[in-house]
């Protein structure tokens, strides 16, 4: 933000060089990015009075001027045709310097001596082009430094204003910082003006239909005379980077730059029904803004309208249909406060960022409206632009009140590492516009324009920056060294990583952001809860707009990248979180994702999972066939069950899914919820002595239907022979000519043993027959 130095010192009497002020403000927390000094390179240029002009004897286009510069009368040759006798002009003396490092010395022009040069605005660096020599106003003193006459002392301070300091988005806010930094009084802004005896309610009515407008105020000015602004106002606007337009528009811009509160002026003639309505726009509504561009609005945007049409996009830009024209005679000044987030989103959607929107989006102080509106009316009266109608409209349903804090000054000293009195602290805070009562503690009333101050640490920061960061003594860091300890979850995650790496897997890390398209790529059902994802409010793009609910797309995408780069032997894993929506903040769930392609099969994947389960000491594990999951190949997918609860799924990816990821080989993937595994983790290990008594080994081969899972068979064997069966081992699965269609032959080796005695053949036979019978009854098995 550009702040003219001359404007700044209007409110603080400071007699210091602009660079010294810039350095001090930067040290106190108001960062100055650039200092632009006026007339820095101009030296020995004074005002001169042209007493006589003669023709040059040797050149038709040159003239000889006798110029009085106060201390002497100089002879200067010029080619300018606009200079006349009696004019007062800038004169560059012998040895003077002009912008760009141009040196002026006396010499001869076509044989006639010239002791200087008459200067134009362009040569003085105050205009890009000029038609001739600069003619100064009549009565300008002679022999005076031109920088004093033209006000070229000082310059412009360009500030970087952080988003938490909207109070510094105006000249007066910066002046307050100067006042506090140098401990100088801050002058009040002049807001006095006269109203006529009419009532504004006879002119205009206002209705606010949406609470995104927190306050709306308006005043009416009649007998308006639209014309150019005074030169001083135009110069200040241009110095601050704003183009002058006309006196009414310039007043609104001047107030915005001075106070940081945007304003707008409507031509009263074009307000239908003499009523202003603050409402939401309609979806698809078209509106032409002041820049001549037709824009399409939607129902998330706030607009200022009348009874028939939209007049302005609230907080962003007005419309062509109500702009101030040369024949405007009655003006409605609008001064409002809007929800900052809504203005920012509106500005972004429209691709239109203005001086107003850049301020409103930072949530301005609603109480700033009073002084801004009165200041505008004061300026109307000062420059004679119109007559203010009596009264004002002010809709302010929920006034913002000052915030009160109680802070211990001893705590502030200890927190910062300084030692100053509470009275000095109070003085600093008062310069910042706070009301402070000094008792044992500081009772502080924080003004509403400092919405960034809410806690005692904020007060300490204000004290520190005004005291001077460079004055705060340095101190060695003190603290107690504490041994860093991993949490239980971190330790268990490291175990999982170590097991996977020891099995030949490489760890990957992928983004938690995914595209909505991944759900279709992995063939999720329409009613799948995984499609209910957390949507990011400000995504980098559509491909990164959702928080992932499953690791499978990330695993497959990584396998695809490797596969397409001719790396077709890949074993990867990722330990990461997925996110599910909830009423409050999203729920985070830690999961393990595994992916394999190459010379591997289903059982390699199952083996890797079992290694993790073994290290965790989890023995109550079941595997159930899963034919409902469309991501996986039917019949080659299993649910991982721990304590009869599903904790994961693994198997071969469906060929259609593999095709979506451009992988032509078989792909094996697993996704496991780690939290149930952590809960089932056993820290104790129990060991049994070697058996004293011999075992009895019996083989069994049965015919069962294809859809019967071997896990079902094993469960029946273990359940029926629970006190006698030590282990069950599958050693053959056969389908061929000797086996009927739709059937398979499954063979097991069953080991029988008791820990307390040697089993007899008769005991084993009874148990073995019971197992066979149970398999026949429950699974329709046939003994081969």
UniProtKB/TrEMBL annotation:
Pfam families recorded: B3_4 (PF03483), B5 (PF03484), FDX-ACB (PF03147), tRNA_bind (PF01588), tRNA_synthFbeta (PF17759)
Chain ranges of the B5 domain: 400-474
A cellular component annotation (GO) from this entry: phenylalanine-tRNA ligase complex
Predominant place of localization: cytoplasm
Top EC class for this record: ligase
Signal peptide start-end: none
CDD domains membership: PheRS_beta_core, tRNA_bind_bactPheRS
Family, as annotated: Belongs to the phenylalanyl-tRNA synthetase beta subunit family. Type 1 subfamily.
Tagged with keyword Phosphoprotein: no
InterPro entries given in the database record: aa-tRNA-synth_II/BPL/LPL, B3/B4_tRNA-bd, DNA-bd_dom_put_sf, Fdx_antiC-bd, Fdx_antiC-bd_sf, NA-bd_OB-fold, Phe-tRNA-ligase_IIc_bsu, Phe-tRNA-ligase_IIc_bsu_bact
GO molecular function, a single term: catalytic activity, acting on a protein
Cofactor: binding comment: Binds 2 magnesium ions per tetramer.
Name of the protein: Phenylalanine--tRNA ligase beta subunit
Cofactor(s) needed by this chain: Mg(2+)
Annotated residues for binding of Mg(2+): 452, 458, 461-462
Keyword Cytoplasm: yes
Highest taxon, organism lineage: Bacteria
Reactions mediated catalytically: tRNA(Phe) + L-phenylalanine + ATP = L-phenylalanyl-tRNA(Phe) + AMP + diphosphate + H(+)
Occurrences of domain FDX-ACB (ranges): 691-784
HAMAP family registered for this protein in UniProt: Phe_tRNA_synth_beta1
Taxonomic lineage from the root: Bacteria, Bacillati, Bacillota, Clostridia, Eubacteriales
Coiled-coil portions: none
Biological-process GO terms, alphabetical: phenylalanyl-tRNA aminoacylation
UniProt organism field: Caloramator fervidus
UniProt subcellular location: Cytoplasm
Protein keywords: Aminoacyl-tRNA synthetase, ATP-binding, Cytoplasm, Ligase, Magnesium, Metal-binding, Nucleotide-binding, Protein biosynthesis, RNA-binding, tRNA-binding
